Amino acid sequence: MQPRYFVRACVFIIFASAAGAARGTAFAQTPADAELHARVQTLEEQVKQLKAELDALRGQIAAAPQPVADAGAATTAAANAAPAGSSKIFNPDISVIGNFIGVAGRNPASEQPPLSLTEVEAAFQAVVDPYARADFFLAASPEGLEIEEGYITFTALPAGVLLKVGKMRAQFGKVNMMHTHIVPWADRPLVSQNLFGGEEGLTDSGFSVSKLIPNGFMFVDLTGEVYRGSSEVFHSEARSKLNYIGRLRGYRDLTEGTNLDMGVSYARGQSAALEGFNTERTGVDVTFRYRPLRR
User: Fold this and answer.
1) Domain residue ranges of the chain, discontinuous segments joined by +
2) Which sign does the torsion angle of CA 197, 203, 207, 211 carry?
3) Which of 56, 195, 199, 219 has CA atoms 20 to 30 A from the CA of 113?
4) Which residues share a beta bridge with 193?
């Protein structure tokens, strides 16, 4: 045989052998592939069956009638849920405010230091229940710690009456009801300092009753208060010698950015300066406020 034909014959034999081996391998893998394919089909059938069962269960749940809630159970649940707000008394709103004042210049009539922390006030306020609210204010100053105010406000009394019981600032004028850090001036007015006990003002233990008088002209609020008579202005050791305070306040919006606030106050009680004598105080306050809403 010639060399060229011999090489061609060898190449043909090699390709034929490779093709036969590949075909044998393919035929050898066929049973395993068939088994795997059968398993996949079985799993697909199971998934389809489970999906059909799940759809059937969903249809049954949707078609089932909804249970009617028991009115008694709902009422009980609402009643049990209502006192949840009362837990606020154990977690009151707390605030701490310090009042720091600096004084410059010379004033022989004033003994104020150049720099001083006059007062630190801590407030504890909470809604006791749907019918009452508690407010307590502790004031710490260089003179010591005291209860500046501590009272309970009853907000759901008949006829729209508002009742406060405890130690509080009397509603005489506007300045007396302000705490030190709320006063818009560095010092209280001379009238408050000379006639109403200075920083403490008219603060005593007692009760206050206020009533809103409905009318179509302006907001009118009438307040009557009775105190023990143990303040810088009024003082009495006898139980029958009490301190009485009344205030009539009117408020009206004049325009969109202006309003008028007016008040008349009256106080009567046994004098703290002159034993055995009664003291009367009368006050009138008028405030015109201009605060435009559009600037």
Assistant:
1) 1-64, 157-295
2) positive
3) 195
4) none
